Structures are given as C-alpha cells and as structure tokens.
C-alpha cells in the first residue's frame, strides 16, 4: 500500500530526512514513533503531497506520490497534528461543508455524514457548535472528516495528543475498527504502550532515518530474549551466584537479597538447560524468567544508542 524509498529532505544544510525508507502493507495499522524533530511530520507531509522531497520515491497504492498529486488526494485521508475547525459551524454543517468539497450534496451527503459521525461516536452531536466540543470530540470530528471520500490510506499525526485517558481509549477503539474495515493506517504517536496494543507493526525513526521496523509481536519477542534473566531463590544465594559466574553465557551478574539478575546471552533452550543445572544442584529456585520489557524501553535504547542502520524484524 505504501512504499517509501531513500527519502531525503533538507532545510538549508540540515537533513530532516536522511535516506528514510519504510513499507506498509494493505490493512496494516502502522505505528510511527520517534523523538521530537526526528522527521515524522516531514515524512507524513511528503507522503500526502504537502511538502516536496529533495530525493527519493513514494508510492501509495501504485500512485507515484511525488508526481501524481491529483490521484493521490483520492487515496489519502490526512489528519495533521494541528488542525483547524470552523467554530461558528455546527457539527453537521462542518461535515456537509467538506462533503461538498468532494462534490457530494443533498440527502446522500447527509446520510454519509451521519454514518461517519456515528462511526466516531458523535451522532448525538450533530446540532452542537464545533466550538462547544471537547478536544477529544474535535479530534474525532476531524477523523470523520478525513473519511468522507473513503480513502484507502489514513495518515494521522498525533491523533491522541492532549487527550485524557477516556478520550484516548475512544480514539484507540475507533482506529482498531477502521483497521478491521481494511483501512491502512499510519499513525504517529508518543503514547507507546497504546501503540503496542493496537498496532500490527511499528517503525522507529531517529535523525531522519528508520532505525527499526517490524511486527510488534516479533519486536517484543526479540526484546524479551535480550532482557536480563531474573532468578529468585528460596535460599543458598551465594552458592547459586558462584555457579552462575562460571557459566559461559553469563556476562554480568548482580544480586540483592534473594533475587539474582543475570545478563544471559542464550536462547530459550539455553535457559532451560541453565534452570535444569540449578535444580540438579539442589539450589532452591523459586522463580526463573526474563525481565519483562516494553516498547518504551526499546524506544529509549534505540534512540539513545543507535549508531546508524536499520533493523527489520521479520
């Protein structure tokens, strides 16, 4: 659905995008994350045809996004991080105004607008002035407006920014429903736990480069194998520590009270063997597991220590 290859964008001597590439399949809900200034919004604006790239290629459902702007507009629904709403219009008037831009008027337009408002849980707000809506409601209204022309690709720049927990939950559920309707969604967000819950894949960008891209499940599994091994003992901690220090796959070890933390370089089979060896020595192991990781911890590791290059989980 979306292919971006070697994208470059310069502002003077500053490279906002430095050879960025990403690939999103049809029907994916793709989380696009990175520090402020990493190039997320610049990438989105180029994909939408709102900003000119200096070099590279962008294809949206077979359309060359850098050349064929006319056909591109029919395929994309774009929700910017800062969007304008017409406060002196009522919700239905706002929706019908945008429908008219796409050549839809009368009963057909009104029925479509009602269906879209119902989809974003605003069907009971048609007579309200936009200015009287909460921020969360305005965000959902903007999303409904993006859907008027039934785009195949939705590009959403921080759609949950500034929302309270309930409003974020409502937005998350709406986006899941849209993904179930076979919409392809590229979503930028700083709320990493929610991205991990709802996205099928993610990409992490830093300094204009994609440093990691892949399926969420595969990335979290990869993280788990790199996390410290936590061993909780019922006693005989010093004996266990002495044994573990002699193991070739143990690199670093620390312990406090009955809990031992080990940087262990082995796989699941190696873990099973290590546990078997501990038990065979009659060492009273109470718990034995990798420390849980998160998308947030991975984000911090990559954006702090990345030395260049891209990792693809597949």
UniProtKB/TrEMBL annotation:
It holds the Pfam family ABC_tran. One of its GO terms (molecular function) is ATP binding. Keywords: ATP-binding, Nucleotide-binding, Transport. Residues 2-232 form the ABC transporter domain. PROSITE patterns: ABC_TRANSPORTER_2. Belongs to the ABC transporter superfamily. PANTHER family: ABC TRANSPORTER, ABC TRANSPORTER, ATP-BINDING PROTEIN. This is ABC transporter ATP-binding protein.
